[in-house]
Amino acid sequence: MLTWNVTYHCKKGQREAFYKALCELGIRANSQKEEGNLGYNYYFAAEISDDLLLVESWVSPEHQKAHCETEIFAKLQALKAQFCTGVEIDKFTC
Fold first, then answer.
1. SS3 9
2. Which structural domain, as residue segments, surrounds residue 71?
3. What is the CATH number of the domain that holds 65?
4. What is the value of pTM for the model shown?
């Protein structure tokens, strides 16, 4: 199993707009339907008002790699460019 904690550092005051855009595009709903997906959930950081955390889990690294090659993932990159100043990724395998 592979889990990624993806912290999106949003531009000042843009976290809610970024999350809304993600929802409108259907990033979570589509990702959850992908083969090998075990979880794809967003969390709002309590201490940092401009951070959004995504916790995504996959059966294998190959499934996560396939996710990164989807059309919806490409659209996510455009949203990140529009709303975020940076991204940090912590990867865990078990």
1. strand
2. 2-93
3. 3.30.70.100
4. 0.94
